[in-house]
């Protein structure tokens, strides 16, 4: 099937304005007749629920955390992009649009990216009005810094806590609507099924994580804003509870998952430091503004203290390979370059899987106090984890799974191929192409929540003639509850010998070694052999203690791993099918003589949307052709 993204035709520069001028509206007094379910309360979900509540819709918002304030958006550190051009260094809406399309290696939908760039400026105004404590310069103006893949300073930041501050802003807006009773919050609940009635999304089935109770909730529309799936690699920078479950349940009900192989490896993470580590810690990309990345030129020097290695024996490899961008080269390129240096035997630290991030030159240039003001909490966090002082000795960093550009397929209105199911933020595929530029995740989440979904959901709701006609007494809701209960009983009855964490670690090893930073035909086929074997072992040998009638985190983890074990196969199929290298998807068979990604625009300039056909059955591929009219296809070069 050839999919239609329903993007406005004509001049992309005016596409969002024309869409809003021509869209159907819902009368203000009619909005209270509609009920909308929002799953997820991070930046996309929290902002979306607050905005829809403010408009007068009835909103039920669900999160598995004990409070929306604990959504994983809180972990974002470095900043949020916007095209304000406050530094007067040449930025514009077009430049942000162009950088995002190029940064994604020309694998995103132009109209979606233009809209993102256009509304980015509104986000900053919104957040300033909420009191977000963005950094300011000496004169009191909002300050900016640079991030990878850009030659302008467009990133607004709140020290190294930008995600936390933005989430508190969204939470304050959400809390206001909770008090006004337009939003009902359901914390400590996990979505375990999507209820589809006559092909239309009409509700969800959830488990109360405190009591174990299974219950259903109806809605005239369902919005998923549940974040990313890179915990399929086990060790990642994501929160332990981040999973594929919500969107995977939608996939099993007919939603297409798009470009699942586009996963991002972040270049600036604290290296793995033990066999029993449960997650990895991100060090903000903003550190690359002042930190210089290097490894010894000679492998024999790797055991030396960095201060003992003279300047002429250091390889500042990003500055050498990409002089135009230097240490701010895009994430996929920076990650592969670090791996290349370590594979060459020049890695530092435990296991020789690390490179130096050095602030010595910056401290000499601007002083330690300035560096503390810019990044102090990040240095504190680094020292707590490694027991090393980053001011006195270079930090050690290494790439780690961080973000997924793929997600549920959506059209221009953020609606999936299932009518009534909308998807926001990292859970959809729409704007980042094959590689996300740094500081663009917060931008997308807030753009989708504050400034996109309040508009784009209206035409769908306006088409519903009888709001609330389908409720929990419909047979499909009962069927959904029974299906969830059967799955839980099945997991508890296995009584095997392996823990969930043991099996998850095995899956992570399979995915990292075969479907990680570098992939090829042989490794992907090996993964497709090993994943079903591990899945069989899971269903025959996992041990889930306790019961389903109360708090049981092992049961939660088992359900999430069961979904990862099915999803991993589709991710790998997508990577095997895409016979090219682009962005975060690097096939070693498809690279230039200089080791750069080699795209195949003639055969793969499309969105790959996969339809689930059953466990162990090859999914069906649907394509949405990508058209580039405002930005011409070109070799992605940062040299």
Automatic annotation (TrEMBL):
One of its GO terms (cellular component) is plasma membrane. It comes from the Bacteria. SUPFAM superfamilies: FAD/NAD(P)-binding domain, Succinate dehydrogenase/fumarate reductase flavoprotein C-terminal domain, Succinate dehydrogenase/fumarate reductase flavoprotein, catalytic domain. It is a peripheral membrane protein. The active site is at residue 331. Residues 504-638 form the Fumarate reductase/succinate dehydrogenase flavoprotein-like C-terminal domain. Pfam families: FAD_binding_2, Succ_DH_flav_C. Keywords: Cell membrane, Electron transport, FAD, Flavoprotein, Membrane, Oxidoreductase, Transport. Residues 36-442 form the FAD-dependent oxidoreductase 2 FAD-binding domain. GO terms for biological process: anaerobic respiration. It catalyses: a quinone + succinate = fumarate + a quinol. GO terms for molecular function: electron transfer activity; flavin adenine dinucleotide binding; succinate dehydrogenase (quinone) activity. Its EC number is 1.3.5.1. It is found in: Cell membrane. Its cofactor is FAD. Its main location: membrane. The keyword Oxidoreductase applies. Belongs to the FAD-dependent oxidoreductase 2 family. FRD/SDH subfamily. This is succinate dehydrogenase.
């Amino acid at each position: 099937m050839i999919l239609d993204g329903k993007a406005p035709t004509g001049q992309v520069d005016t596409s969002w304005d024309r869409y809003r001028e021509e869209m159907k509206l819902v009368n203000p007094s009619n909005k209270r007749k509609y009920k909308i379910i929002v799953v997820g309360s991070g930046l996309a979900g929290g902002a979306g629920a607050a905005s829809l509540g403010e408009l007068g819709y009835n909103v039920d918002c669900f999160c598995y955390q004990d409070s929306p304030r604990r959504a994983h958006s809180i972990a974002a550190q470095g900043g949020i992009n916007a095209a304000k051009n406050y530094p007067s260094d040449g930025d514009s809406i077009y430049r942000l649009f162009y950088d995002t399309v190029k940064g994604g290696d020309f694998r995103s939908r132009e109209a979606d990216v233009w809209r993102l760039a256009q509304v980015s400026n509104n986000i900053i105004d919104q957040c300033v009005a909420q009191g977000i404590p963005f950094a300011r310069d000496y004169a009191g103006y909002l300050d900016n810094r640079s991030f990878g893949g850009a030659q302008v300073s467009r990133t607004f930041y709140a020290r190294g806590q930008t995600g936390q501050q933005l989430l508190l802003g969204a939470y304050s807006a959400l809390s206001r609507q909770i008090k006004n009773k337009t939003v009902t919050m359901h914390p400590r609940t996990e979505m375990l099924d999507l209820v589809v009635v006559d092909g239309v999304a009409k509700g969800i089935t959830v488990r109360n994580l405190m009591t174990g109770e299974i219950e259903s909730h109806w809605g005239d529309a369902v919005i998923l804003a549940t974040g990313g799936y890179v915990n399929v690699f086990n060790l990642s920078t994501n929160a332990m509870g981040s999973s594929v479950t919500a969107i995977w349940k939608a996939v099993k009900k007919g939603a297409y998952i798009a470009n699942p192989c586009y996963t991002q490896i972040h270049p600036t993470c604290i290296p793995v430091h033990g066999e029993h580590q449960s997650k990895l810690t991100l060090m903000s990309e903003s550190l690359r503004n002042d930190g210089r990345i290097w490894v010894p030129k000679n492998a024999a020097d790797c055991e030396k203290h960095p201060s003992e290695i003279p300047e002429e024996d250091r390889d500042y490899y990003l500055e050498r390979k990409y002089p135009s961008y230097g240490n701010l080269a895009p994430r996929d390129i920076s990650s592969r370059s670090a791996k290349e240096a370590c594979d060459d035997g020049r890695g530092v630290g435990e296991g020789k899987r690390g490179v130096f991030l050095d602030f010595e030159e910056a401290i000499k240039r601007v002083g330690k106090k300035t560096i503390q003001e810019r990044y102090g909490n990040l240095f504190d966090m680094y020292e707590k984890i490694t027991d090393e002082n980053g001011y006195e000795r270079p930090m050690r960093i290494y790439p780690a799974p961080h973000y997924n550009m793929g997600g549920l397929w959506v059209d221009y209105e953020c609606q999936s191929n299932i009518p009534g199911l909308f998807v926001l933020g990292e859970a959809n595929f729409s704007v980042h192409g094959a590689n996300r530029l740094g500081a663009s995740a917060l931008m997308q989440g807030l753009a989708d929540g504050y400034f996109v979904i309040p508009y784009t959901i209206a035409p769908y709701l306006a088409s519903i003639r009888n709001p609330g006609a389908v409720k929990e007494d419909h047979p499909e809701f009962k069927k959904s509850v029974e299906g969830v209960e059967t799955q839980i009983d099945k997991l508890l009855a296995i009584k095997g010998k392996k823990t969930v964490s043991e099996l998850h670690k095995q899956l992570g090893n399979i995915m990292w070694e075969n479907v990680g930073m570098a992939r090829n035909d042989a490794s992907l086929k090996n993964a497709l052999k090993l994943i079903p074997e591990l899945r069989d072992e899971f269903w025959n040998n996992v041990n889930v203690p306790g019961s389903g009638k109360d708090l049981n985190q092992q049961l939660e983890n088992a359900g999430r791993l069961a979904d990862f074990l099915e999803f991993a196969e589709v991710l790998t199929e997508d990577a095997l099918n895409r016979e090219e290298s682009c962005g975060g998807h690097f096939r070693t068979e498809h690279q230039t003589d200089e080791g750069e990604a080699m795209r195949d625009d003639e055969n793969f300039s499309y969105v790959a949307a996969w339809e689930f056909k059953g466990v162990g059955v090859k999914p069906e591929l649907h394509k949405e052709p990508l058209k580039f009219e405002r930005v011409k296809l070109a070799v992605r070069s940062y040299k």
